[in-house]
Amino acid sequence: MRAAILLVLVGCAEPVICDDAPPTTWDNFGAGFITENCQSCHASTSSNRYDAPVDVLFDGEDDLWEHSADILNVATGDRPIMPPRGGVSEADRERLEILLQCSQ
Ligand code: HEC
After folding, report:
1. How many angstroms separate the alpha carbon of residue 74 from the centre of ligand 1?
2. How far apart (Å, rounded) are the C-alpha atoms in residues 53 and 6?
3. Ligand 1 centroid – CA 3 distance (Å)
4. What pLDDT score was predicted for residue 103?
């Protein structure tokens, strides 16, 4: 009985976006996405950060999870502000959201 209640709670906690979402991981999506779209300014080794904050570093998977709430805020949703010059497809932004919301 108690297990059934727990299952219902867990089911509710998972966002709708996760239903039928393609399996999305750091290895099959996140690493490439961050490298391509974010690391030019946010890697610790970046040669020109364009004033990206020194404490917002994306070097590897741990950084993604550490900053997941902020990344969701600035890089997904209706009005993303990162990267500052845009250029990320809608499909990739959705995939990023799936990774951050459903894969942990
Ligand atoms: C061209 C350089 C550049 C790129 C590329 C870039 N950023 Fe940024 N980022 C900045 C700058 C500059 C700031 C600080 C100014 C600001 O917050 O608008 C910033 C701030 C942030 C912050 C902190 C925001 C806050 O409110 O504290 C996050 C999180 C972030 N970026 C995530 C990302 C993600 C995720 C990507 C890739 C999808 C990305 N950035 C790509 C330059 C960049």
Report:
1. 8
2. 40
3. 42
4. 84
| Cis preceding-peptide flag for 80 (omega within 30 of 0) | no
Q: What is the torsional sign of CA 62, 63, 68, 72?
A: negative
Which sign does the torsion angle of CA 52, 55, 60, 62 carry? Answer: negative
Residues 6+ apart with CB under 8 A from 94: 17, 76
Cα 54 versus chain centre, distance: 19
Q: Give the pLDDT score at 16.
A: 79
Give, for ligand 1, the residue of 29, 35, 42 to mutate: max count of ligand atoms closer than 8 Å to Cβ.
Answer: 42
pLDDT for 67: 97
Per-residue pLDDT at 34: 98
Question: Mean pLDDT for each 10-residue chunk of the chain (104 residues)?
Answer: 55 74 96 98 97 96 97 96 97 97 85
